[in-house]
Amino acid sequence: MRKGRFDEPASETAQLFSESVSIDRRLYHYDIQGSLAHAAALAAAGILSKEEHEQIKAALTVIEAEIAAGDFRWERALEDVHMNVEVALTKRIGAAGAKLHTARSRNDQVALDLRLYVKAEAAEVCARLRAMQTALLVLAEQHQNVVMPGYTHLQRAQPISFAHYLLAQIEALERDYSRIFAGAERADVLPLGSGAIAGSTIVLDRELIARQLGFAKLSQNSLDAVSDRDFACEFLFGLAMIGLHLSRLSEDLILWSTSEFGFITFSDAFSTGSSLMPQKKNPDMAELTRGKTGRLYGNLMALLTTMKGLPASYNRDLQEDKRPLFDSVDTVRQALDVFAAMLPELTINAARMEMAANDPNLFATDLAEYLVKKGMPFREAHEAVGKLVARATAARVTLSNLSLGEMQEVSRLFEEDVSGIFDVRSSLQKRTAIGAPAPENVSAQIARWKSLLVC
Ligand code: ARG
Q1: Whose CA is nearest to atom 2 of ligand 1?
Q2: pTM
């Protein structure tokens, strides 16, 4: 690469600072796929003879196998995965290898490799989202009749079912799925053929290359194609959102596993002990998921910030896209694997949830709605029940312990049937609007997800 233009070799310090092969070598499969497609186009254009093309195909296949087997010698002095593969190829087959980079730049080459990587990893992430949704769904089905308090501000609010909570998580992961899926469509554009910035005077059949590599579209502007890392930013955002969802779920599970709540117990296999306190069983997987989400955000911010001041076209800054991308992909894949394996092993302490769900205060809103159904404007009903809550609190009794007489002092609309309000299951049964947690709705949602997730 330096042979013609430079008199001196690169400084060791500069090489160490600028090499990327220690990071980008994991793109080797995509790099070689790209080179095979490029070679086919060069052959079709008459730049490579049939024999040269065959030589290139055979040698690249051997090189790929060597890399996969760990037998390939990566040279830091050769900067990146692209130069390493190309130099190894030329060492083996000479002139034919030296022709491979015709009408190609590392600028369109690296954009290609990264797009192939994002497409493949998006599919991996989507499959893992599905696996985790399935694990949540199985739990929901197993515990369909378990009731619990719903919390707002982390204060007991209204009754829900545990399955309703789990279905909420499935919804969030579904948005993640469609976000990653849509992002992969944006990555599905072939940049190869854009050269360094302005294509080439040697014109290759880009449609042929796209077909061989399985791209749906061709980039339509060579300058944009080598500049663009939107697809990587989007993927990082999608991964950060998955982290956000897993982190919030983690927070709930951590809280619910405390002695104070006691709603769930993590299995031993997904818990850790304390080096000091013998009694401890800590929810480290959930905590680490929450913690690693910070790094997922950091990775997104790192790439967005790298991009923001760049002049149009390729700039070496773009090399910094890989570390955050690889790190976020690895982190999210692992976290999803952990959750898919950890969720089925959770112990659900239904009795504890049920006990908490029987807190009469959870039915204060139902009580107000009882009055509304008897004709009272909601604002007045809200105030009336507020008075009852204050009265019960002052008397240190529960709302359900107030006598009918005491209730009637606040409103004459209260009658004998008011005692039926404080039943968690009948409260849930009345919540039949679309999306609300009536048991029939919850089981319909479980059936819907079952058919969508095919499990
Ligand atoms: N290692 C580089 C990267 O990851 C490849 C492209 C280098 N292009 C260049 N003109 N120096 O972005």
Answers
A1: 319
A2: 0.96
